[in-house]
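Predict structure. Chain length: 404.
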Amino acid sequence: MPAAASFDGAILVVRTEGPLPRRRRAHAKRTPDERVLDVLGRAISSGAPPVSRLALDVELAAMAPATKLAIAADLECWLAWCAHENRAAVPADPEDLVRYLVTLEADGKKPATLERRLASIASLHKMLSVRADNLPTAAPIVRSALRGHRRRHGAPQRQAAPLRLGGELGEVPGFTITALLAACASDLQGVRDAALLSLGYDAGLRVSELTAVTLADLRPQLDGAGLLYLPRSKTDQQGQGAWAWLSPETMRRVGQWCSEADITEGVVFRRVGVDRRRQRAKELADERWGEDGTADAAELVTYTVGSAPLSRPGVTGIYRRVALAAARQGHAVIPAGQLDAAIAALSTHSLRVGLTQDLLAAGEDGLAIAQALRWSSPSTALRYGARLRAENGAASRVLAQARK
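Prediction complete.
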């Protein structure tokens, strides 16, 4: 049953509660554990020694869900190569691993990808207790092949395009949080998008943290600001917890979204289904008639708020959709011919990179930024701000006037 309805001009807006219609899928979605166990089952050769289920359960319990999914994806690639080359996946032969690395190099894979694939293959052997004390991935020939690839193709890791605040902190080129917020529509979906962007930027959240935020994690403060409790994160797998500050603007946006979506508990950021259908006005609650005496067509818009959290691809899609709207509405100026590339460069990490660069530009040091964004060391923060440090470093300060 509709939870609320309003008529605005020729648009009837009906908001309903309950789960969204399920998308049809060929197979039921498997859990991270099921995906890993499936790959392990296919990797074990006939006649292999039995595997301790207790040891396997302990290994899986120590991994984050994202880690399990990454390992499963990497091992799928390794198993496919072994099947094509008619080689044994476990135990892996060091020379086979070198040939595998050569194939990946020919496919244009970066050094970081090769290192991760080898780490996943090492995990495979550990979980199956096969040569756990003498891993084939640690063989000298394999490490030498990896160093050779890094020497030939070594390059800095690709960094997500930053979404800096802009506006009150000064104009910056490209897309900004201020521009994207201005482009968010006033409907239910737009209210959610604005709250998502605002909270994700203030707290510098990873996508796994952003999609896990619940109402119980929010702590309003007397001055209008808020605190966000993060029970777990990528660098806090033991669940010691951390806190992040939220601006009054963010708290207002989140409050508006939860109020309009009638969210009283559970995850905050959810999928919004939008169903637009052309209807005759006489079928609506309030009839509208044209000058010729006939009923005007009106649009019936139904918003359905789901109960499950947004997915990683869903968050990326929101950033890119709102960025495109910002460019089309003139809130962000992108050089001609660069719009598609600028949008494609945005990812779930863009808010985190943007906040880091804003804090560096404001003069905060790497240690303070690492603490604010919950990094184990300041090295990542400094890497994100390498270009800013060059622009505002000692050389630019001393030579800017002397070498005009």
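Summary: Strands lie at 2-8, 11-16, 218-220, 226-230, 242-246, 270-280, 297-309.
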